[in-house]
Amino acid sequence: MAAHRLLIGLAGLMGAAGVALAAASAHGGDASRLASASAMLLFHATAILAVVALLSRALLRDGIGLVAAFGFVIAAALFAGDLTMRQYTGHSLFPYAAPTGGTLMILSWLTVSLAAVVAPK
Question: Which of 22, 25, 65, 85 is the Cys-Cys partner for 35 at CB 3.0 to 4.6 Å?
Answer without folding.
Answer: 25
